[in-house]
Amino acid sequence: EVILEVKDLGKTFDSAQGETVALRNINFKTHRREFVCVIGPSGCGKSTLIRILAGLESHTTGEVLLDGKPVDGPGPDRGMVFQGYTLFPWLSVKQNVMFGPEMNGHGKLQAEREARQWIDLVGLSKFVDAYPHQLSGGMKQRVAIARALANQPRILLMDEPFGALDAQTRGKMQAHMLDIWKNIDITVLFITHDLDEAIFLADRILVLKAHPGEVQELIEVPVPRP
Ligand code: ADP
Ligand code: ADP
């Protein structure tokens, strides 16, 4: 079952300094329950790609289809996790996670019930009433994951989510992320510039190569397994 289809996607930024081609001729599909990592060097267009998929950025050419329908702006069908946790600092863990379900019209009690389940899933049930500033970086990122999942998205879009964490916490979060993914019906598109991270997490790896002035390529490579 195809969840996301990207066809001949291109993006050119126009500015006073001229045009920057960030993406060109990008084609790929993700299927249900896949964990797909996109890797590539700095500046190759990874963030631009995921921002377009999230509906936060327009594209210049091609199309993005989610469940066969063109993506037009952000929506609850796509969950986002960024490197900076982007939690609401004035809301508790529970309130942060309830926010999506409440916006989607679930009643307060129902939204709270759902939030507790997602907070449980990320192992923070003791911290439902804590505030973001009381939590470690890894814990904040777990709240961000719970909040993204609470909208019950079709796909989770993660942009270098563990990039700001120290090596030990990053390792723990990678293992935790795999546990979550194995336990629920979710498709993940995960951006990283860390090949080891991609090898650990992915069942598919797509490499985005920068080809200034040429046709850009997104190539699938086999995941090396011991
Ligand atoms: P990555 O995430 O792989 O580091 P980006 O998607 O951030 O790459 O950037 C891809 C290219 O697009 C870079 O050349 C960058 O300078 C350019 N770019 C990104 N955002 C903008 C913008 N808002 N305006 C102009 N150029 C941009
Ligand atoms: P993470 O790897 O998620 O950043 P830490 O390494 O900071 O977490 O902590 C590991 C565990 O210790 C957490 O899962 C949590 O249960 C507990 N913990 C971390 N910070 C606190 C805190 N401020 N108060 C109580 N327990 C904490």
Automatic annotation (TrEMBL):
GO molecular function: ATP binding; ATP hydrolysis activity
Keywords per UniProt: ATP-binding, Cell inner membrane, Cell membrane, Membrane, Nucleotide-binding, Transport
Domain ABC transporter stretches: 4-226
Highest taxon listed in the record's lineage: Bacteria
Family: Belongs to the ABC transporter superfamily.
Record protein name field: Vitamin B12 import ATP-binding protein BtuD
Species in which this protein is naturally found: Pararobbsia alpina
Residues of the full protein shown: 28 to 253 of 304
